[in-house]
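Let's practice the habit of predicting before peeking. Look at the sequence and jot down your guess about where helices and strands might fall. Then scroll down.
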Amino acid sequence: MNDTNPPTTAAAAAAEAAERLIAEYRALPPGSDRKREIITELDANAPARPVLVPAPADAEEYGLARVESATVLRVWPPDDPDLRRRAGRALLTALREPEEDLVRQYAAMSLAPYTSDPLVAMALDSTARADQDPLVRDSARFSIKEAHRLQETGAAGP
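Done guessing? Here is the structure:
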């Protein structure tokens, strides 16, 4: 058999599927609920992380897509130091948005892997002590405890 095309591997098929989902995500309008579904489908896909990083900070984005992105960034923080810093800063932007309590709550809850950034650590501390929304305060306290656990186990990242 003289086949010049290599066989499609599971990894290649997964990469192609992720590329299709990313293209679809980018083509959708900000208010589309399908964006949230795509984020869920991309969940642990590391190559998709750069697409998900700005979502929590985008005030024009669908709220549940922002929440889902924050959750993915909490569970799967980027390994790349620059992308990780941008993810933390995007979550901070979401945390500071006064009109979106649910987004703020999830942003606060998702900041634990990003506390090596002094700006994140300070904002999380002040949020835990003084935020007007008790759910956001509690989420920030959760994040602080989680950050300590991650540091103790050596899983805190760069």
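How did you do? The two ends are 49 Å apart (CA to CA).
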